Amino acid sequence: MENKAAFVDALGYALRNYTRLGVGTVTYNKTPDDRELVEILFLNGGILRVEVTADSCIAIMHDIYKALM
To answer: Whole-model pTM above 0.85?
Structure first.
C-alpha cells in the first residue's frame, strides 16, 4: 500500500526547495466523505486544492503538475 501522505510531504519538500513557485506547505488530506485532496499553500497567501481521490502516487504527482502549470 502506498503512503500518500509521506509522498505528498516529499513532493512538497521538492516544490519548496527546488522551484521558484513560492510554495509554502503541501498537505494531503482525506475528507469525511473519503475524498482525497492535496492543499498547496503559497507564500503569497494563495491556496490551490487538487483532488487526488483514488490516485496512485505517480498520478498525484501528475495531477499536481497539471494544476501548477
So the answer is: yes
